[in-house]
Structure to design on (367 residues):
């Protein structure tokens, strides 16, 4: 079965000047995908043209005020010929609003292609990213929350009973968490989980994503945060996946897996402090693919979030696409840092054990 790559050159038209979230992220990635024989003339991979999300689809998780503000700021940028800002971090050019609709719609197109059986799984090479945007505010380089829109679409429009977002961006996806904190907005249908691994919010934006943030009401126990000490490595993550992520996914039994895939936990990223390698991204997705193949009919969609070191993001995405396609991951490291025993010990006691204690009423954590 084919792996889809959702992409349009229009994603390069979200122009951000000298900002780290720039078109160069996609340009560098596509260059390496071509060099590795993934982008062209490879029957295992198919380039899929995105569509724009409708305003009604955006409104499923965002307020009219927020949508209007994104449109207005883009219009200001277009009329003035300058870049404008949605917040202190989020740059808009004249085309950014329309491209944000295309980013959200690209993820929805991937969902549809997977559910129709035209492709097995997909990677949405979209921008702007989304996971910091909540119902009322675009922020943190993000405009519309692409993953959140897709999850609600799966539950309310596509009759999926259980879906999960696994977020491995270095920054906590506070927008996604906010949107789903009391359940799937506007519906009593279905069930979901949001599982996030990220640098501890005491040391990095947005300052959230702690273990005691578990959801409310119908969503209680459905929000699972794994805050990581700075310099946490592949070895630390491997234990978290083996002890927490994989057992919970096996028990929850999602019918569809969405991955909010940031690549800024790589040890060379310029704005973060974790210690992952490019190999770990491929290995992590291989683990999730095992669950998807076993439980979710192989249905997994990866959507791009952060990641700002060009070699790291491009190499990591190559490994992820190879993992989705069932191929060996070719991109090797990169001299990633060795694991600090103190950090591993801290993670075992203050993250893994703490999560098992806090979530014991919800999950069994059986390996």
């Amino acid at each position: 079965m084919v792996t889809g790559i959702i992409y349009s050159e229009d994603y390069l038209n979200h122009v951000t000047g000298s900002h780290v979230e720039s078109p160069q992220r996609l340009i560098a990635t596509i260059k390496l995908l071509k060099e590795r024989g993934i982008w062209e003339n490879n029957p295992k991979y198919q380039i899929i043209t995105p569509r724009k999300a409708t305003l009604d689809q955006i409104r499923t998780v965002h307020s009219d005020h927020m949508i209007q503000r994104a449109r207005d700021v883009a219009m200001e940028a277009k009329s003035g010929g300058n870049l404008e800002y949605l917040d202190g971090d989020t740059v808009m050019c004249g085309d950014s609003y329309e491209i944000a609709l295309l980013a959200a719609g690209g993820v929805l197109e991937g969902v549809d292609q997977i559910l129709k059986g035209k492709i097995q799984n997909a990677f949405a090479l979209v921008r702007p990213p989304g996971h910091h945007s909540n119902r009322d505010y675009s922020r943190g380089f993000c405009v519309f929350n692409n993953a959140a829109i897709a999850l609600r679409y799966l539950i309310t429009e596509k009759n999926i009973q259980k879906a999960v977002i696994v977020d491995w961006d270095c920054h906590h996806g506070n927008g996604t968490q906010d949107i789903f904190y009391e359940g799937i907005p506007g519906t009593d249908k279905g069930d979901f989980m949001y599982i996030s691994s990220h640098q501890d919010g005491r040391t990095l934006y947005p300052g959230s994503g702690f273990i005691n943030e578990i959801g409310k009401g119908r969503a209680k126990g459905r929000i699972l945060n794994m805050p990581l000490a700075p310099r946490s490595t592949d070895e630390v993550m491997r234990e978290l996946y083996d002890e927490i992520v994989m057992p919970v996914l096996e028990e929850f039994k999602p019918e569809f897996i969405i991955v909010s895939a940031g690549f800024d936990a790589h040890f060379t990223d310029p704005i973060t402090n974790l210690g992952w390698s490019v190999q770990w991204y491929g290995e992590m997705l291989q683990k999730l693919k095992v669950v998807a193949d076993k439980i979710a009919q192989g249905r997994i969609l990866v959507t791009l979030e952060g990641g700002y070191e060009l070699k790291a993001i491009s190499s990591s995405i190559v490994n992820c696409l190879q993992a989705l396609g069932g191929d060996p991951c070719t991109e090797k490291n990169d001299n990633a840092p060795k694991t600090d025993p103190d950090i591993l010990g801290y993670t075992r006691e203050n993250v893994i054990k703490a999560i098992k204690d806090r979530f014991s009423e919800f999950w069994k954590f059986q390996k």
Q: What stands out?
A: The radius of gyration is 19 Å. The first strand starts at residue 3 and ends at 6. The CA atoms of residues 128 and 142 lie 6 Å apart.
